[in-house]
C-alpha cells in the first residue's frame, strides 16, 4: 500500500471517528451523559444503511438518512426506560444496550436479506460504494474522503450551533445535576432524550460512512472496545470542546495506526504490537486524566457582549 | 396564593412534616423559621415537587399541585432557591442568569436553525434584564467568571439573581442571606421589598437572621417538629412563649431576641 493511499485511508478513518467523537462529546462533554454504548449508534447506522441500500436497492443518500433515523430513534428510545437512572447505572445500561444491538445482528441473519454465508457472524459484504463507477480505483478514495469531510463539517457546524445556543445552555446546566434545571422549569428528561436522539443520529451517520467505505460489516467490528476508543478521543482531545473532539479523533487514530510502522523498528511480533496499541491508548487516557484533566483543548468559556 | 393543608411527610421513622397547615397571602413576604430539623427545607422540597408528600394537599393560586414533576411546578410560577446553592461550575455568572428565563425559543433544537434572528433578539432582551439583576446582586464585575469560582455568599446571590430572571409568581427562598456580607444584606432587603412592590410577587423565605425577618416579613410562621407552632407579625413572634420554648437552647434564644453576643 502506497503512502498516499495509506494517508487517505487514515484521513477517512479520522473523519469518521471525529463524527463519532463529536457525537459522544455532545452527550458526555456537554450534557454529562456517560454513554458507554456509543458503538451501538455506529453499528445501527452501518447496518441500517446497508439494509436500505443492499436489500431495498435504494440510493446511498437514503441509506445515509435511514441510518441516521434508525440510530437517532434508538438513542431516543433507550433514554425512556433509563430516564431515572443515576450516572453510573445509566452508563452500565447503555453498555448493555450496545451489546444487545450487536448480539441482535449476530443472531438475526435474516435482517440483511438472508442467503447462504450472509448475515449473522458471517457479516455482510458487497455493500456498494456511492458513485464508484465514476472514479478509478486510485481516485475513488479521494472522492470518498471528500464525502466524509463534508459530513464531518456538517456535523461540526450543527453540533456547534446547538452547543452555543440556549439549548446548549440548558444541557450544560443538566451536566451539573438535575435539580437546578428542574427548578428553572426545564424538562430535563426531555432534553436528555433529545440529546441522545441527535447524538445517536450522528453516530449513525458515522456508521453509514464506515459501512460504505469498507464494503463489508460484521458484528465483531462493533465490540464495546470501539466505544472506549471514542471515549479516549473525547478525553484526550478535550471534553465539551467540539474542536477538541476532532483533535482527539486525529490523535487517537494516529496512535491506533502507528503500529503498522513500528513493526519495522521494534523487535516485537506484529500480533503483539496490534494488542499493544490498546495498551498505548489506555496509557494515553490515564496520562490525560492525570495531567490534563480538561484535555488538549479546554472547554471554551461562553462570553456575551451587549450592543 | 399558597395553601398547604395537613401535609405529612416522613423519612423512615422521622416525621419531617406532621400535618402542616398554613397559607400565604398574595403579595406578602412571609418568613419561615424554626430550629434545625423542624422541616423548613423539607417543606420547600415538597412544595416545589422535589419530594413527594405522604398525604395532604398543596394549592398554588387555587391550583392543586399533585404528583407533577418539579419542572412543571416551576412552569406554574413557583421559583425556588436551594439551601446549598446549585451552581453549574463551568458556566459563567451571566450564562447562569440567561439560563433562567422560561420558554426560550432557542431551547428548541429546530428553532436554533430556523429562527436564529428571533433567538438573537431574545438573547439581547435577556441580557438587558440580566445586567440589571447583576447590578442588584453586585455581581456585575464577575459576570464572565465561572460560577464555580464564586464564594459561598456570592453563589447565594447568584442563585437569587437567577431565580429572579425566571420571573416567578411565588418565590421560595432558602436562606438567601446566609454567608452574604451584612451591608449587602441590607441592599438585598430593599431589593426584595421593591420586587414585591413592583412585580407583586409573593415571597416565602427561610431565614435564620431575625434582623432580616423583622425588617422584611409581614408575617412569620414558626415550625417545630414539622408542625406550625405559631404565626404572626415578627414582633408578636418574638414575644411568643411557645416559640421561645422551641428555641430554648440558649444561643438560639439569644438569636431570636436579637441578642447577638458578637453584635453588641
Secondary-structure blueprint of this entry?
The complex is a heterodimer of chains A (307) and B (264).
Chain A: H1 3-30, H2 38-55, H3 60-78, H4 87-107, H5 140-164, H6 166-175, H7 179-183, H8 188-214, H9 224-237, H10 242-262, H11 270-291
Helix pairs in contact in A: 1-5, 1-8, 1-9, 1-10, 2-3, 2-4, 2-8, 3-8, 5-6, 5-8, 6-8, 9-10, 9-11, 10-11
Chain B: E1 2-11, E2 14-24, E3 29-33, H1 40-47, E4 55-60, E5 63-64, H2 70-75, E6 78-80, H3 93-99, H4 109-114, H5 116-136, H6 152-165, E7 170-174, H7 182-199, E8 202-206, H8 210-216, E9 219-224, E10 227-232, H9 234-239, H10 241-246, H11 250-256
Parallel strand pairs in B: 3-8, 3-9, 6-7, 7-8
Antiparallel strand pairs in B: 1-2, 1-4, 4-5, 9-10
Helix pairs in contact in B: 3-6, 5-6
Describe it for me?
- The complex is a heterodimer of chains A (307) and B (264).
- Chain A has 307 residues and is an all-alpha fold.
- Chain A has helices at residues 3-30, 38-55, 60-78, 87-107, 140-164, 166-175, 179-183, 188-214, 224-237, 242-262, 270-291.
- In chain A, helix 1 (3-30) packs across helix 9 (224-237) and helix 6 (166-175) packs across helix 8 (188-214).
- Chain A is globular and about 55 Å long.
- The mean pLDDT of chain A is 93.
- With 264 residues, chain B is an alpha/beta fold.
- In chain B, strands 6-7-8-3-9-10 form a six-stranded mixed beta sheet, with helices on both faces.
- In chain B, a hairpin with a 2-residue loop joins strand 9 (219-224) and strand 10 (227-232).
- In chain B, helix 3 runs parallel beside helix 6 (152-165) and helix 5 (116-136) crosses helix 6 (152-165).
- The longest helix of chain B is centred in the middle third of the chain and has 21 residues, at 116-136.
- Chain B starts with a strand and ends in an 8-residue tail after the last helix.
- The model of chain B is unreliable at 260-264 (pLDDT under 50).
- At the A-B interface, helix 5, helix 6, helix 7 and helix 8 of A face helix 2, helix 3, helix 4 and helix 5 of B.
Amino acid at each position: 500500500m502506497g503512502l498516499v493511499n495509506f494517508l487517505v485511508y487514515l484521513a477517512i478513518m479520522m473523519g469518521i471517528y471525529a463524527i463519532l467523537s463529536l457525537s459522544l462529546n455532545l452527550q458526555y462533554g456537554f450534557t454529562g451523559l456517560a454513554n458507554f454504548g456509543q458503538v451501538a449508534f455506529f453499528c445501527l447506522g452501518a447496518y441500517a444503511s446497508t439494509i436500505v441500500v443492499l436489500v431495498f436497492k435504494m440510493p446511498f443518500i437514503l441509506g445515509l438518512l435511514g441510518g441516521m433515523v434508525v440510530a437517532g430513534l434508538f438513542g431516543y428510545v433507550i433514554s425512556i426506560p433509563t430516564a431515572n437512572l443515576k450516572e453510573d447505572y445509566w452508563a452500565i445500561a447503555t453498555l448493555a444496550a450496545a451489546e444487545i444491538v450487536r448480539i441482535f445482528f449476530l443472531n438475526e441473519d435474516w435482517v440483511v436479506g438472508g442467503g447462504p454465508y450472509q448475515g449473522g457472524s458471517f457479516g455482510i459484504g458487497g455493500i456498494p460504494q456511492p458513485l464508484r463507477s465514476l472514479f478509478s480505483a486510485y481516485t475513488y478514495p479521494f472522492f470518498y474522503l471528500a464525502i466524509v469531510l463534508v459530513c464531518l463539517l456538517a456535523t461540526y457546524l450543527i453540533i456547534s450551533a446547538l452547543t452555543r445556543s440556549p439549548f446548549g445552555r440548558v444541557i450544560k446546566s443538566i451536566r451539573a445535576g438535575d435539580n437546578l434545571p428542574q427548578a428553572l422549569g426545564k424538562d430535563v428528561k426531555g432534553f436528555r432524550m433529545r440529546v441522545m436522539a441527535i447524538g445517536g443520529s450522528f453516530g449513525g451517520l458515522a456508521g453509514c460512512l464506515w459501512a460504505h467505505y469498507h464494503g463489508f460489516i460484521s458484528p465483531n467490528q462493533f465490540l464495546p472496545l470501539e466505544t472506549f476508543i471514542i471515549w479516549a478521543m473525547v478525553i484526550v482531545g478535550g471534553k465539551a470542546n467540539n474542536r477538541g473532539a476532532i483533535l482527539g479523533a486525529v490523535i487517537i487514530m494516529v496512535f491506533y495506526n502507528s503500529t503498522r510502522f513500528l513493526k519495522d523498528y521494534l523487535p516485537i511480533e506484529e500480533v503483539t504490537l496490534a494488542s499493544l496499541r490498546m495498551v498505548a491508548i489506555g496509557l494515553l487516557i490515564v496520562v490525560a486524566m492525570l495531567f490534563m484533566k480538561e484535555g488538549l483543548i479546554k472547554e471554551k468559556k461562553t462570553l456575551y457582549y451587549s450592543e | 396564593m399558597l395553601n398547604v393543608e395537613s401535609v405529612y411527610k416522613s423519612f423512615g421513622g422521622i416525621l419531617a412534616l406532621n400535618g402542616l397547615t398554613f397559607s400565604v397571602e398574595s403579595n406578602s413576604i412571609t418568613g419561615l423559621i424554626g430550629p434545625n430539623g423542624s422541616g423548613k427545607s423539607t417543606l420547600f422540597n415538597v412544595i416545589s415537587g422535589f419530594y413527594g408528600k405522604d398525604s395532604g394537599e398543596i394549592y398554588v393560586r387555587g391550583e392543586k399541585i399533585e404528583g407533577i414533576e418539579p419542572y412543571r411546578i416551576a412552569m406554574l410560577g413557583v421559583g425556588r432557591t436551594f439551601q446549598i446553592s446549585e451552581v453549574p461550575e463551568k458556566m459563567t455568572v451571566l450564562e447562569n442568569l440567561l439560563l433562567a428565563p422560561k420558554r426560550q425559543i432557542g431551547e428548541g433544537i429546530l428553532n436554533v436553525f430556523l429562527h436564529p434572528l428571533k433567538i438573537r433578539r431574545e438573547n439581547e432582551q435577556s441580557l438587558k434584564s440580566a445586567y440589571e439583576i447583576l447590578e442588584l446582586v453586585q455581581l456585575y464585575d464577575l459576570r464572565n467568571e465561572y460560577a464555580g469560582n464564586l464564594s459561598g455568599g456570592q453563589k447565594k446571590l447568584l442563585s437569587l439573581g437567577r431565580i429572579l430572571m425566571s420571573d416567578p409568581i411565588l418565590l421560595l427562598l432558602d436562606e438567601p442571606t446566609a454567608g452574604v456580607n451584612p451591608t449587602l444584606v441590607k441592599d438585598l432587603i430593599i431589593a426584595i421589598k421593591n420586587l414585591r412592590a413592583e412585580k407583586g410577587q409573593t415571597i416565602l423565605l427561610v431565614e435564620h437572621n431575625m434582623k432580616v425577618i423583622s425588617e422584611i416579613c409581614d408575617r412569620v410562621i414558626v415550625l417545630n417538629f414539622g408542625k406550625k407552632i405559631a404565626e404572626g407579625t415578627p414582633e408578636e413572634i418574638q414575644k411568643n412563649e411557645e416559640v421561645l420554648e422551641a428555641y430554648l437552647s440558649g444561643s438560639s434564644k439569644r438569636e431570636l431576641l436579637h441578642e447577638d453576643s458578637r453584635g453588641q
